[in-house]
Predict the 3D structure of the following.
Amino acid sequence: MSAPEQRYIGLDVGRTIRGALVSAEGSILRQHRVVSEVSDAQVFVDQLADVIKTLNNDQESRRAAAAGIGWAGLVNQSAQSIEANPNLVDVSSYDLHAQLERDTSLPVVIDNDANVAAYGEWRAGAARGARDVFFVTLGTGIGAGLILGGVLQRGTRGFAGEFGHFKVDQDGLECGCGGTGCLETVASGPNIVRRVREKLFSDPSFSVSKLARDMEGTLTAERVMQAATENDDLATLVLRDTGIVLGTAIASIINLLNVEVVVLGGGVMAAGDLIMRPIREGVKRATVSQAFKCVRIVPAELAQEAGMIGAAFLARDLFGG
Amino acid sequence: MSAPEQRYIGLDVGRTIRGALVSAEGSILRQHRVVSEVSDAQVFVDQLADVIKTLNNDQESRRAAAAGIGWAGLVNQSAQSIEANPNLVDVSSYDLHAQLERDTSLPVVIDNDANVAAYGEWRAGAARGARDVFFVTLGTGIGAGLILGGVLQRGTRGFAGEFGHFKVDQDGLECGCGGTGCLETVASGPNIVRRVREKLFSDPSFSVSKLARDMEGTLTAERVMQAATENDDLATLVLRDTGIVLGTAIASIINLLNVEVVVLGGGVMAAGDLIMRPIREGVKRATVSQAFKCVRIVPAELAQEAGMIGAAFLARDLFGG
C-alpha cells in the first residue's frame, strides 16, 4: 500500500473521457472531462494525454504517482494493448500505452472499463472486504468484472467479463456479436427501449403510458427508468421482466462461482428497487439453496465514479510505493 | 514442491471408495477400492480410514506423507466440513476430517470431487500448464471445477462448481434442486436416457434403433454411449442435441471467464467425438469471437483416475515438504 499522501489519476474512457485525481484513500480531489474525438485517432490519443496532464498540472509535491485507464473495449491486459473498441475511434495502429507513458511521464496501466469499475467497487465501494465478487454493469451494453480468491480475474487474454453475451434464450434475437439470444438482446438499455416500443405497438392498453408520447424516436432508456419511478405501468412491467431475466442469468453464475456479493451498477440501476427487486427474485428462483444463502445482491456505491476510482486504485496497487 | 520420493494417498469417494497411493510425479503405485456402506455412517467413516491405512501399509520409508479426499457432495473447504452429500450416507454428525486424521495419523484435506478431478487434470492431465481452466464432468450429475489465475477457485463457502444448475431453458423441466430448466435436466446421464425413451415413444421411425429393445427399464446412459459408437441414429441424434446444449452453456462461461482450456470428463465422454463435436459446435456458435480464438476444448486425460490423482496432489501441494 502506498503512502497516504500519494495521488493517482484515473480515467474512464468511453464516448466521454472522464478523469479524476484521486487520493490514496479514494477521495476525488479534482475532475476533468471532455467529449471523445470520434474521427481522428491521433486527436483522441492526444486528448487522453491532455486529460492526464491537466489533472496533474499542480505543484511538484502534489503530482500523481501513476495513472490508470478504464477502456470501453477489449484490452489485452498483460500486453497492455487495445484489441477492440467498437464505440470509439480505432486506435489499433497506436501503441497507446507507450505513447501515454511518454507523453505524461507517468507509469500507466490500461484495463477494460468493467474491470476497473469492479475494482473500484471492490476496493472502495459496495464489495469492500469481500474475496469473491461478481460485478455487473447494466447500461448500453452489459459487462462484468470478477474478483475471485481476492484477485481481479481477467482471463487468459484479458477478455473476461463478456456477460452481455451470456445466452439466455436458445431462440432469441440476433446479437451484434454474431450469436443469438444473448443477455444484451433482452436487457441492455437499447433493448429495454425496444421492448417498451413493441409493447406500445402491440397492446393498446398501454397507450395511457407516459412513454406513449415519446414514441417518435426520442424514447431513451433513461426515460423508461424515470417513468418507472413515476409508477408508469408499462415501464414497470418491462423492467420487471428484464430483472427476472437478469436475475436468472446471474443465478447461473452464482451457482458456478459461489461469490459472496453481486454488485449491480450502470445506468439501468437508476430504476432502483424497480429493477433490484425482480433481479433478486430471479436470483432466488434459480440459485441452488446453499449458494443463495451466502450471497448478497447489492447496488453499486460509487455510481459514475467507480471507473475513475477503480482505474486510479489499479495504478495505486500496481505502482504505489 | 515435495521431494520426488514422497508419496501421497488420494481417495475419490462416491458410491465406490476408490483410493490410490500416488508418487509425487503422479504415478499410481497401488490402488484399493471398496463399495461404500450406504446405511451406517460409522461403518462408512471406518471404511474411509481403512482404505487409507490399507494403501499405507508398507515399510516406513515408503509410507505416504498425507491424504487427499474428493467427496461427492458439498464441502466447506476452509472449514474442512461436509455440508451435503445427497448420494452417500449422512455423515453430517461426524467431524470427518478430525476423525480421519486421528485414525490414519496422516494430515488430510477434503474437497469436492469435481474440484479434485479438475485439480488432477490441471496438475497432471489435459490442462497441464494452463492458468485459466474450466473443467466439466458429465455423468449422473454435472459438476465443474475452475482454475483461474493459476488458483483452484472454490468460492466463498467452497460451493463453487454447480454447473449442473446452470439455467439453459426458462421453461424447462423441474430439477431436483428446486429450480427449472437446469443443464442437468437435459444433459445428465439419466436425462439423456429419458430423452432417448421419449423419442422412442413419440417417433416410430426409431423403432429400428438398437436401443428399442432396452426400453423395459434396463436402458442406461452407458448403453446410449455405446449405441452411438455403433452408429445408432437415435443415440447419435440425442447426443448431438445434448452436445449443442452443453456447448452453448459452456460458451456463456467462456465469454465470462476467458479461460484458455475447457476439459471435459465423466462417463458421458465415453461417446468420444459423437459428444465432443456437437459440444465444439455449440461453443463456436455462442462464443464471442476473440474468446473463441484463444480457447481449446479437450477431453480429460486421466479418466477415472483424475479424482484420485487430483486428491493426492491436493495433499501434496498443501502438505508436501
Q: What stands out?
A: Residues 135 and 263 of chain B are 5 Å apart (CA to CA).
